[in-house]
Amino acid sequence: MTRDIIYNAFTHVTLSHQSHGQWRRPEASDQRNFSKLEPWVRLAQTAERGKLDAIFFADTVGVYDTYEGSRNASVREGMQFPSNDPASLISALGYVTEHLGFIVTSSIIQEHPFSFARKFSTLDHLTNGRIGWNIVTSYLQNAARNFGYSELERHDDRYQWAEEYTEVAYKLWEASWEDDAVVADTSQGRYAAPEKVHAIHHQGKRYRVEGPHLPQPSPQRTPILAQAGTSGAGREFAARHAELTFLPAFTPESAQRDIAAINHLLPQYGRRRGDLKFLTMIHPVIGSTEAEARVKHEEFLHWRSEPAYLAHLSGSIGFDLSSIDPDTPLKDIKTDAIQGNILAAIDAEPDKTARFGDVIRRRLNKAFAGTPERIADEIERWTNAGIDGFNLVPVVTPDWFATFVDEVAPVLRQRGLMKSEYRPGTLREKIFGGASFLPDRHIARSFRSTGADLI
Fold it and tell me: What is the largest CA-CA distance in the chain?
């Protein structure tokens, strides 16, 4: 029996997203042409040919400038810089595909929720309901400064901000137009019933939004909602809002613990198991044989940019990793500033005499090499632990995805680990089955129109 596993092409409209340094390869000309439309069209068509669920567009609205106290490494190495707006691609990619979804990252700091909600409703219309929103609160200080803030708010305060931001968006998407507001009566010259279109009159700590929502209801009303974060506040936010949550787990066992913790929270918000699907990242280097996989992995290591990885990781954790001598034994590291994945890596290392640099290098690169059969084994290992899907990290975009589609996907299908056809309907229907709209138990649906303006 085929299992309902999600596969997303994980990418970023930039030179180097996760596989840092690989853009320098002679065969990476399409990746170097990331500012052109044609490589993205090829990626979308390849992903749909392979029956992937979506392209998951990561994004940042700032530059990583923590490593060595400047942005120099990021700029020099092309590490998520330069970076273009992913939402600008969606109309074109939606036009050349029929089923593929598009999950787009948009931070609460980068756009007013009124204009954001309008943009995503428009994209949902243009793609016939294939849009998702990856909700992020941003973690780069440069991103905050780019939008006029002196610094980022504290971690948990940003989640409070996200609560109001999503509330405004939900009111616009769910409450502003009644389901039957559009009548399109040409004989009477009456397109919409005024009494069925409502203002939202939101008044909160940050936003004052009158409404109504300018677009009419899109196929999904509210797009698929994605999120990442395993802090306490992040887990609570996922349990309350997300339909897909991205776990930065190192092992299936750690993913299993995260899944159990978040599932435990769902009933507090009137939700149940299955309402939230859990994704992780997988980064395989694909070889037709084990020998070829080893050669390709050596090539991967040859092109890898360690400064770019360190710049990426330093910005992600908010700590300059260049400030610790890589030859320092783990037992001698006394700083309290290191946290998250790096702290977990240090704590998990059995040999405390191991050098910090060696441990970081192992953690910098989650890529592993293998045949299609080995990759299928790894996917099965994670799904047996409760993972519902994968953000697939390429070596080089878009060519790596063609290899995955042509060599790995057939093996996955033979094992019942990948679908052969898309479900009909919107992205929500394809992933969850059932209805195009969110289920009534989701917080967004509590804002549905009552037949009057919200007050």
Answer: 82
CA distance readout (Å), 218 to 92, 110, 129:
18, 23, 7
Instruction: Give the pLDDT score at 230.
Output: 75
Contact in structure between 331 and 311 (CB atoms under 8 Å): no
| Alpha carbons 401 and 189: distance in angstroms, whole number | 50
Helical segments of 171-251, H only: 232-241
> CB–CB of 164/174 below 8 Å?
no
**Angle subtended by helix axes 232-241 and 155-170, to nearest 10:** 10
| Distance (Å) of CA 348 to CA 3, 249, 319, 353, 366 | 32, 13, 20, 13, 16
pLDDT per residue as tens digits for the range 83-138: 999 999 999 999 999 999 999 999 999 999 999 999 999 999 999 999 999 999 99
How does 155-164 read in b/e, with b if 16+ C-beta sit within 10 Å?
eeebbbbbbb
Rounded to the nearest integer, the mean pLDDT of the chain is 92
- 156 CB-side CA count, 13 A: 4
Alpha-carbon distance of 425 to 405, in angstroms, equals 23
Range scoring the smallest mean pLDDT among 6-15, 332-341, 401-410: 332-341
Q: Model confidence at 346, in pLDDT bands (50, 70, 90)? A: low
Q: What is the pTM of this model?
A: 0.94
Determine the 3-state secondary structure of 262 from DSSP: helix
Rg of the chain over all Cα atoms, to the nearest angstrom: 22
Say how far apart CA 343 and CA 72 lie, in whole Å.
25
Only one residue has tokens 């971690």, namely 155
What is the distance between the alpha carbons of residues 49 and 401, in angstroms, rounded to a whole number? 10
Q: What is the pLDDT of residues 276-296, one digit of tens each?
A: 999 999 999 999 999 999 999
